[in-house]
Amino acid sequence: MGFFITMFICNLLIPLIMLVGGYFMYKKPPKEINSVVGYRTKMSKKNKDTWEFAHIYCGRLWLKLGIALVIPTVIVQIPFVHSNDNVIGNMTLIVEMIQLVVLLCSIIPVEQALKKAFDENGVRR
User: Under a CB-based contact definition with an 8 Å cutoff, are residues 45 and 51 in contact?
Assistant: First the structure.
């Protein structure tokens, strides 16, 4: 049971990071463009306007995706409560890989929104 609880907590890490990170990107984005903290892509770092737009957009998206991931993550794990460690470990791997794909694919709509709102030089359309 201890292994299940540990894996349960591990499976909730990505959705919780998305919720917390999304909140801070949306409500309190980094004030200065930097290469350490925040949503950092070539387009988002063009200027202050693109930087703020990307953080607000990505923050909202991560909040929605974080909530959307928490619910199925919990539901998927319930049937595995009394399974052996190998089954729980494999289930954890599958769940976390799906979560990671969702996290990485969140870049696509943010970049599309940036390209729609700004030209290639970062000037708002």
Answer: yes
pLDDT (average), residues 105-124? 95
Average pLDDT over all residues of the chain: 94
Residue type, 81: V
| Packing angle, helices 48-77 and 85-105, rounded to 10 | 160
The token duo for 90 is: 């494999």
Q: Which residues does 45 contact at the CB level (< 8 Å), separation at least 6?
A: 33, 35, 51
Tell me if 66 sits within 8 A of 18, measured CB to CB.
yes
User: pTM value?
Assistant: 0.90
Residues 73/12, Cβ–Cβ less than 8 Å: yes
Distance from C-alpha of 2 to C-alpha of 16, rounded to nearest angstrom: 21
Cβ atoms 114, 46 nearer than 8 A: no
Q: What does the alpha-carbon distance between residue 13 and residue 31 come to, in Å, rounded to a whole number?
A: 26
91, 19 Cβ separation under 8 angstroms: no
Q: H or E segment at 23?
A: helix 2-27
